[in-house]
Amino acid sequence: MARLRDLPAAEAVAEVRKYFEGLDRDAAIQLADERPDEVGELDGAPIELRYRANHLRLTRDRNELLAKSTAGEPSGHDEQRLRTLNRLMTPITELGTDQVGRPIPIQRERQFLALDNDGDGKVVEVFGDLRTARNVATSINGIRVDEEDVFAYENYVQALRTEAGPESATIMWMGYDSPDGLDAASPKVAYEAADKFHRFSAGLNAVIRHDARTTALGHSYGSLVTAQAVRMGAEFDNVAFAGSPGLGQDIRTAADLGAPNTRFFAARAPGDYVSYSQWFGRDPAEMPGVVRLQTAGDVSVRGHLQYYRPNSESLRNFGRIVRSDYHAITETGTSVGQETRLAPGISWAGPLRPISTAAGKAFDGVARLTGVRPPSPATTTTSQRRPSEQCRQEGPTR
């Protein structure tokens, strides 16, 4: 495992794939059963084995906490963790199809590609069938506070799949200990998380349909993680940013991300102070080469936390991106001044940008002293996947 971490993402995934291709089914299952902590996190390993390994991990951890509870030894943290594990092991209802392709609700066991009890507790969960999905979208979270946020974000990602349609699968990627407090003012955590997400995406592309269309959707601090992973070489057909505080001080246009075969989109809702701050660089909603998504519609979307509201134009646009229904995407071009006007010529968001620019320059100076650096750009843009240009017209039944 340590050696794999030292290899470039594509090489590490190729080695994992080659290893499992040399195992028969029984041997692969035995490996997952005996070493679930390793197999459950192993990018490039067969999907079903990772699901199995992570289910075993959940069961083991829950049984250990139940034993402590029975012995009268649980702490408050243990009791909270036990409640969380019970919820994570509860089957969910999601969108499926019947024999003639009509959308129907189905109940199934949870599907996890990563779990971790350290820090905030990382979770990577899949909704839909990754093996058959024609469209695969990964949603990357921003700042969160505790494990309860997992279940709130889960609702967003399920709503995204419902909007994209039954031939889609969505992934909730909480694969890093996202920052809080003062740590959220630094890009350091994002730089570290970008490598993890890059490796995850390489493993994902190796196990899904070769012609599946892939999308990454980064919200808030997660947009910085997503952008830096793309710059490292993570491959997606589409990348969308929502409520972004910036993608990096040196990223001024989509071309700076070094992914000419990727389509880029950005959503900025009126009143989203995080986007207005441009804390980590230029707002992607104002970048050349990035399509600015409409968020206004029959359902109001305002501020930083409403991009996934059901039936909102922002969520509908995300669904259109996931299924590559580009012609149906709605765009906007409103300015910060128009979105935040208090009176003619006066905007409450105006003072935020000089402050964040000064803070960014101050951080750059500290970064040079402490060695904090953004990830190195990829040295090649050669794709490992065959792109599919077919536009998807299927979507939700309203």
The percent of residues in helical segments reads: 25-40%
CATH superfamily of the largest domain: Alpha/Beta hydrolase fold, catalytic domain
Structure summary, number of beta strands: 12
- Written as H for each helix and E for each strand, in order along the chain, the element string is HHHHHHEEEEEHEHEHEEHEHHEEH
At the third CATH level, what is the topology name of the largest domain? Rossmann fold
- The portion of residues forming beta strands comes to 15-25%
Low-confidence stretches: 356-370
User: For the record, what CATH class of the largest domain applies?
Assistant: Alpha Beta
Quick overview:
It is built from 13 helices and twelve strands.
Q: What's the structural blueprint in terms of helices and strands?
A:
Elements: H1 2-6, H2 9-21, H3 25-34, H4 36-39, H5 47-70, H6 76-88, E1 92-97, E2 103-108, E3 112-115, E4 123-127, E5 135-140, H7 148-164, E6 168-174, H8 188-207, E7 213-219, H9 221-232, E8 238-242, E9 263-267, H10 273-277, E10 290-293, H11 313-322, H12 336-339, E11 341-343, E12 346-347, H13 352-370
Parallel strand pairs: 5-6, 5-7, 7-8, 8-9, 9-10
Antiparallel strand pairs: 1-2, 3-4, 4-6, 11-12
Helix pairs in contact: 2-8, 3-5, 5-6, 7-11, 8-9
